[in-house]
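User: Please predict the structure of the protein below. I'd like the answer in structure-token form so I can feed it into my own downstream comparison script.

Assistant: Understood. Taking the following sequence of 135 residues as input:
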Amino acid sequence: MARTKKVGSTGRFGPRYGAKLRRRVLEIERKRAEPHRCPSCATRGSVRRRAAGLWECRKCGLVFAGGAYVPFTDAGKAARRAIAQRVSDSLLALREAEEREAEAKVAPTPEIETIPEVEVTDKAQPEDAGQGPEN
């Protein structure tokens, strides 16, 4: 069997397809074979490729979508950052709204108390007023 020190697993192609394409295939195969970390249980080396774009953790059983050759692509990482930013912004807005509602409930605005109006009449006092109790 021939040695493939330089070309690695792409030695199976022989002189076909050109050196640049064989190097590209070699790089992809090495990335695919290296140990990956599970996004759920964070175990390194337990994630295996199930099919193109499907990855499975052998420890926790999580099956998730990823890239065809690597579980986490650069585009996927950028999308996660954008989603996380939008979620955090909406959570901050919700938190601020809740704080405003809580402040409104805790410190209600003081209402102006109205003094009941007393009707003033010009009626004369009754005749027995001021004479004391009757015996």
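That's the full token string. DSSP finds two helices and three strands in the chain.
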